[in-house]
Design brief:
two-stranded antiparallel sheet, five-stranded antiparallel β-sheet, alpha+beta, 275 residues, 10 helices
Length: 275
Amino acid sequence: ARPAIRKVAMTIETRIAALIGLPVSSLSRRHGGDLSTVYRVTLTDGETVVVKESDRAETEAAMLRAVRGSGAPAPEVLAVERDLLVMENMPAAGRPGSAWTDLAQVLERLHACHGESYGWPEDYAFGGVEIANASHRDWPTFWAERRLLCHVPYLSAALTRRIEALSRTLPERLPADPIPSLLHGDLWGGNILVSGDVISALIDPACYHGHREVDLAMLTLFDHPPARFFEMLDLEPGWKERQALYRLWSWLVHLRLFGDGYRSAVEGCLVELGV
């Protein structure tokens, strides 16, 4: 009988070396990363790279390339395979508060990159929460179906009734055909790297094409941009009233990922929207 062949699992260091073509000198896990594992890796030639374990690594790589292609800063993708993404290490020494002027200019470049419809060629996910991105040419329908009603199976009956009632009113609340801008899709302060007063990179994108105000709604979940930031963006009339509707999706995702601590945020948006 032939002897059994024992499969030896490759270490993360071995996999990185195979992708990059250089051995790993040191590896340390980065803080943060609620939904994935991220490492800071030093190679034997002294270069430092960032490595992310993700079952959607190839999709994220395409999104990073799209952000860079718009002229907005993002890490260069150095190598990628199905569940491992190797990226350029970008300087970071602050929070967005020191670089609001540059962030406004960065977002102008990002959002000036337009798609033909709303959505993205592939679906994505935040942890176990799927993000449906199938294209649609009607923005209120896209937002209702792909961003609000998709959560109904996971909500209480009371929240479900309110989300369904709100969704029926979206044609009156949202523009039918805003420019389908390239969105970062997860634009909170932790995904904005700052060096001095300059944005060094936008990281961890969840890109799709949609109304540019969505990125601003996510940015204001935990950060507080000054009035001059919004003035630089020259937003359409009614943008302030739409912010609660766009923030609602983010809070619904948080509710599903992290639990009832975010229920009050969801309910606060619904109250603000009169539902």
